[in-house]
Structure formats: C-alpha cells, structure tokens
C-alpha cells in the first residue's frame, strides 16, 4: 500500500488557506498514486490555536472546512488533524475522510500541559482507540504525545492488533529533538511489531519552529524514509506486510537530518525569522548594526531568510564607539549586500543630557547615561519602523536576556528577537558557520575575535559586569534549562560567588524578559511560554 505524509506550513487561523494547501497536496498524492494521505496534527487550523479555540465561530469554521475537504477530496482516504467541537467539549482530533465524508474520528488522549503546551486548558481527552482496515493493512491512530508514553500506549491498544501505527504531530523543534522522536517511534514499533509513520508540521509560529522531518519506520525499527527538514514535502513510500514483519519501501534519496548542531540551528533560525516576518505582514526588516557579533549574526540570518534587498542595517555611533566597530558594521552590511545607514546620535545624546542635567542628581557618568544611548537607538529604530513599515529585529542573545544585560526600551525595543534563545557561546559558532557556508568572511574575523562590549562608556567590556561567557552559559544551562539549584551547580565545581551572582541576576530580571519581544525557541527551555515565573517573587532559591 502506498502512503503519503503531507507535511506543510500550516498558518494558525487561516483555515481556508490551509485547506487549499491540503487540496494541492492531495492532487500531488493522486499523481503519485498514493492510497492513503496523512496530514499533521491540527493541520486544518494550525498549531497552537490557543484561545481561538474559545471562539464558537472558529470551531464551526473548522467543522465546515473538514466536511468540505472530505467532499472535494474523496478518491483516496485522508487522515487530517482538526479542532473538533462536540457538545460543550472540544477535542484535538484526527478525522478519517473516505468517499466524500468523515467516517471515523480519533481524539487525542494524552494532552500535554507543560512547557509550551496548554492543551488541558482547551481540550477534553479522548478515551477510545481507533484501528481501521485499509486495503490489506490495519492502522492504529495516535496524535503527538499519545505515542510518547509507551506503557500507556501498550495498555490503550492491548486488545487490538495492527500493522501500522500512525502518529500525526505538531512537535516543536529544539536542538537534538529529531533523535528523541526517532527513539520514541523505534520503541513503539518494537513493542507492537508494526511499522510507524510520523507526520509533523513545518514552519514558524510565533516563538515555535516546526521542523517537518516526517518519517517512516519499519517493524525492525529502521527509519526507511525521511521527509525534508524545514521545508514542505510530500513523503511517499510503500508498505508491505511480509509474514511476521512490516517493510517500508522507499525509492527516493534519503533526506539529510541536519544533525550537526550549528547547521540545524541555522536552518531553524532562518525559517523562524522568515515565517514570523511574512506571516505577520512584513516584507522588510531593519536592525541596529553595531559591528558586534550578535547584530552581525542576526543580519546574516535575516538576509538569508528574507533576501538582502529586504534588510537594512543601521549604525548609530556616539563618541564611545570605536572606528573599528563602526567600520566592521559597514563591512558586514557590504558583505551581505544589505542597505546600510549611518545615523550618529551624539548630538541627540547631548541634547538629552542637557535637558536631564536640569534634574538634580542626574549623572552623565552613570549607568542611566549609558542606557540613555541604547534608548535613543531604540527610538530611532522604532521611528523608522513606523515610517517605512519594516519590522525591527533585536539582537539580544539568551545569555544577556537571562541576566538582564540589556536596556529596557533600548536594545530590547523591537518586534522579534531572532537569537533570544541562543547562548552567547553558540552565537560565535553561528558566525563561524555563516562564514563557512558563504565561502568567505561575511562576518569579519575582527568581529569574532574582539572582546564583546556594549560600547556605552570608554573601554567598556562585557566582562566588567559579567563572568566569561563560557562560565556564564554553563551556569545558565543548569539553572534555567534544567532547574538546578545554586547548590547543585556549586557541587559540580562552579565558583560559589559567581553562581550566586548569576542566579540572583536571573531572578531579579524577570520583569525585563516579560516586556521583551518574542524570539525563536531552540533549546529545551526558552524564556517565554516554556518558563513562567512571577515578576513579583521573593523566593530565594538557596
């Protein structure tokens, strides 16, 4: 039997557009003689629809669209994810479309309610397994997390036998997740002695990235067919029952998995930047280009995602900016082929300083004066955004965001934070990777080698306020991503005073993070939906 997995870039709320794209994939499936076509979780309405699910009209439009899809695509069976309303309950469902109608519905049973997931807020869990005979094969159904808890799954399907396990999914990306998914499916096929098919969404949705990479596993646990990463794809393969095993025959070339960490990360950030910009109605972006490593990397990602003609880099120097960083900003722009503007802000800074000098106690040598420069730059960027309709990209990394090493309403001002979840040490690796794939030093070596500095006062270095980024990132990974206590970090051999300094900075800067723009999630725990702590918080984690 020939199976097709149709991974596509579903847009949240664009029910008509998503349905039309599903029809296009359906036509491709007919041309390739597919006998069963599978679409991802909530493909019809996009994932996650969040509080759209509380709108009656939204649920009614889902119902009409899935019924219409069944009527217009009736030549082969289709499995499609949609938001279902039944009585006063809502379900995350997979509809089986055959011969012009909905013949069966499987409802997701294990509803995740952690990290970025809030499914128990919206959905009622299903409670019935579904096994269907299609041609000479029996298919069991699961949706996303249903397949991840193997003991539950074994009990759920204990009274049935089947040849193939279908899992439709909207599984957000983080570094290394493809390996985890393949282990999950391998465990399932070995437990049930069946083949398994995993169909995932692709595309960016706010902070989340769906990397696609749908795949098929035969009953021995071998991944026999893989769809493309970060692209729409129709993966077609044949499934054959041969005595006591189920084979998956795939004639196409295997798609690369992008398992090299930096390669994978670069593609995820590029896709996320492109989709956030385009899906929110922007064609062009602009950013402050300082000559530093972070803004250089963000500019390169933006140019790759949107085209160099749609990116503007702006340097806004004061007397504290060295000729070298100003020159490097221009070099980066020239190497990328993006528009470059130079708007000196020294006169503006002087004007602000004179006005503020009328306030007793104002100090032109203090932190407030340093941050004033960043706020002037943020105002200029947002004014240009307002004038020309371009989206402002910020360039703060995860290390800085974690400890509040950023100016509220200054370098945090903008619409999208491309590297918000990328640790500083990884930003350097991204810069080297960008130069490697460009076959030239798009980001000059001087940018990569220069000690990082905000250049808000004479001879300033990041290490004046922070530990080295190697040490900082080790502490942050433990404290933020794995919820280790300071004591546990210290027991690993990390300096106690530095650990307490960093963890205190993380705790007291929640208010800044809450007011910062959304950014792409690439780690197991990002700031935002992944990590929700109160702003007013007197708990000391010691």
Could you explain how this protein is built, in words?
This protein is an alpha/beta fold. The chain is 38% helix and 20% strand. It has 17 helices and 20 strands. Strands 5-4-3-2-1-14-15 form a seven-stranded mixed beta sheet. A six-stranded mixed beta sheet has the order 6-7-8-9-12-13, with helices on one face. A five-stranded parallel beta sheet has the order 18-17-16-19-20, with helices on both faces.
Task: Give me a quick take on this structure.
The chain has 542 residues and is an alpha/beta fold. It is 38% helix and 20% strand.
Overall structural domain count:
2
In angstroms, what is the radius of gyration?
Answer: 26 Å
Name of the CATH superfamily of the largest domain: Carbon-nitrogen hydrolase
Q: Describe the oligomeric state of these chains in a short phrase.
A: single chain
Strand content: 15-25%
Secondary structure elements and pairings:
Blueprint: E1 2-7, H1 15-31, E2 36-38, H2 56-72, E3 78-86, E4 89-98, E5 101-107, H3 119-122, E6 131-134, E7 137-143, H4 150-156, E8 164-169, H5 177-192, E9 195-200, E10 202-205, E11 208-211, E12 215-217, E13 223-226, E14 233-242, E15 245-249, H6 261-279, E16 285-288, H7 293-306, E17 311-315, H8 323-336, E18 339-342, H9 346-356, H10 367-388, E19 391-394, H11 398-403, E20 416-417, H12 424-438, H13 445-449, H14 469-481, H15 486-491, H16 496-508, H17 510-514
Parallel strand pairs: 1-2, 2-3, 7-8, 8-9, 16-17, 16-19, 17-18, 19-20
Antiparallel strand pairs: 1-14, 3-4, 4-5, 6-7, 9-12, 10-11, 12-13, 14-15
Helix pairs in contact: 1-2, 6-7, 6-12, 7-8, 7-12, 9-10
